[in-house]
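Worked Example 4.2. Consider the chain below.
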Amino acid sequence: MTDNGSASGNQEAPKGAPTGGAPLPPSGHGAPTSDRQGAAATKPDVGKRAIAWIIDAVVAAILSYVPVIGSLLGAAYILTRDGFAFDFMDGRSIGKKLMKLRPIRDDGGKMDLETSIKRNWPLALGMLGAVVVYAPFLGIIALTLLLTLIGAILGLVEIYFVLTSPDGRRYGDRFAGTRVIETES
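Applying the procedure from the previous section yields the following structure tokens:
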């Protein structure tokens, strides 16, 4: 009798499945809306991603109104938003949770703060300009403007990649080894 590869795991990957051994997210982290085999290879809805980003920007803006440390809190939220293990966030930002999106790691690991920082530093860099305003040294305005300009350029590059990449991965996703998928919850 032949085994046909069913027990040994030598079956061919379904059409559209991710290549290179990139596993799908664990079943406890929300199943993608389409079939599980091809979901990680599809591009998530750009409109949903934009709305999720706007929601997260509003959260960061609200945090920035906290006296003295508000700008730092807003930047910290943008930087770490996908790595929190709180039950209501479930390893994703508030915006992604509301829009039923999930960042996943290509290696199948759980999203954590380190991965979130790697993924979101291009988006948080521009917010550091607001933090520098409070630093007591010469050249504050020039450094603030420089950080804001660099942050704006990086933000535009990230938008370009989300719109033009076949899988919707931006530079931060490539750097951190992550991607965004749509989920049922």
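The CA atoms of residues 159 and 170 lie 7 Å apart. The chain has seven helices and two strands. Compare this with Example 4.1 before moving on.
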